[in-house]
Amino acid sequence: MPRKYKKYIKAIEKEVEALKKKRSLNEIISGAEKEAESEASSKKQQPPPKLPEKPSENKTQETLNKTQEALNKLLHSRSSKPNNNNTNVFLVPQAPRLPKTQAEKETTRRLIVVLEQACLETYKFRKSKNYELLNCDDHVSVLQKMGRTHSDARPDITHQCLMQLLDSPLNKAGLLQVYIHTARNVLIEVNPHVRIPRTFKRFCGLMVQLLHKLSISSVKGSEKLLRVIKNPITQYLPTNCHKITLSYDAKTVRLKDYLPVIPSDYSICVAIGAMPHGEDSFADSWVDEKISISEYSLSAAVACSKFCCALEDFWDVL
């Protein structure tokens, strides 16, 4: 075959291949267009998604009425129950009502705790000319100059006892009254509503202010939270009152067996020594008997807590 014909044949073959490629591309494009058209048609045939219906005013009013009825039933059921925990129907805690008149103090049954021989004494420093509460941690040299021991300056014991007593459920139920009788024969009445400072340093500052101003009032009103009162302690005790002293040397009793023996309409007065050690004859002139509540020697704070817990169980205070 001549060369010139071979050139023509190759050119024709190239044109044929180009036509084939062009045809295949057209087929692909047309197929894609058909698929797109079919998808669009199928979407048009499907119904649009339903939107959530807006609640009508009648339905909204019905739900509100049902909710109000349920709340009214709940409040009525709570108000019909006896209110033993000093709470109202809205579950807001209420402050316990304390006996104020002499008649109420005579008839209201409660626990009266007297912290005897409390180490609360102020000392004036020459350099700073300020008064501080004498304690064995900060005033060692002062105690040595005065010829006194560390046991004569332990106000931390009174602080611990007050926190145990005033934080107890018995006090929050309005069934506790606390008095402090210091080693210097100062008698202090503690209001059950007072909140004793948590830190010992702030407690010392409060006691210095009390011993010099003779009273501490609340910020909001004229209520006396702490005040110095006249001796003796017996004039503040009700007539129907069983008076005892906690002593390690006395006969040991179980409080759950001892408390039912006391008449049910009697208040209970407990004298507890707020000192590290020493004789327990501080209340022999006015107490009825001495008892021991443990076979072991207890600190004053533990004795306060143990007696309060026993009375909470006996008087059904939760």
TrEMBL record:
A family per Pfam: EMG1
Keyword S-adenosyl-L-methionine in record: yes
Region (Disordered): 30-63, 76-105
GO biological process, one term: rRNA base methylation
Bias-annotated ranges (Basic and acidic residues): 32-42, 51-60
Record's subcellular location: Nucleus, Nucleolus
GO cellular component, one term: small-subunit processome
Compositional bias annotation for Polar residues: 80-89
InterPro entries (alphabetical): Alpha/beta_knot_MTases (IPR029028), Rbsml_bgen_MeTrfase_EMG1/NEP1 (IPR005304), tRNA_m1G_MTases_N (IPR029026)
The entry's keywords: Methyltransferase, Nucleus, Ribosome biogenesis, RNA-binding, rRNA processing, rRNA-binding, S-adenosyl-L-methionine, Transferase
Primary site of residence: nucleus
Gene Ontology molecular functions: rRNA (pseudouridine) methyltransferase activity; rRNA binding
This protein's record includes keyword RNA-binding: yes
Family under the similarity heading: Belongs to the class IV-like SAM-binding methyltransferase superfamily. RNA methyltransferase NEP1 family.
Name of the protein in its database record: 5887_t:CDS:1
Species in which this protein is naturally found: Ambispora gerdemannii
Lineage: Eukaryota, Fungi, Fungi incertae sedis, Mucoromycota, Glomeromycotina
